[in-house]
Amino acid sequence: MEVAANVLAAQHSPQGLHVGPEFAQAYVRATENLKPVFGTSGYIEIFPGSGTLANEMAMLDEGQTALILDAGYFSNILKKSVEGCGATAVLMPVPEGQPADPEAVRATLSQQKHDLLCFNVRSQLRCFLLVHLNCALC
Length: 138
Description:
By secondary structure, the chain is an alpha/beta fold. The chain is about 40% helix and about 15% strand. Strand 1, helix 4 (about 75-85) and strand 2 form a beta-alpha-beta unit.
């Protein structure tokens, strides 16, 4: 996966203070820029943290379903976390080094109600994407 030079350069710059004004401005820009990506005018929240935090954020109620775009090891850990809550985890394979096929994701989401969409991005950028599909703030 190619990563833009400006993104790589930003990773090598000094870490900013997460409570400072620069972070607050970047946070607002990021959440506003994500709204069209997810097709919403609703509230978007970004939680910086580790994969462990992503597992904790993926807690669902019994009877709910998570669609996990399976990109490897951490997807299986996430699956165990979701199932540990009594919820159902559906793994959708994503070929290594490839992006998820948006049409395949759209088709899967249209076939069954899902409450959470999860994706472990496996690249030079380590992050989880969690999208709660049915929440009071959405």
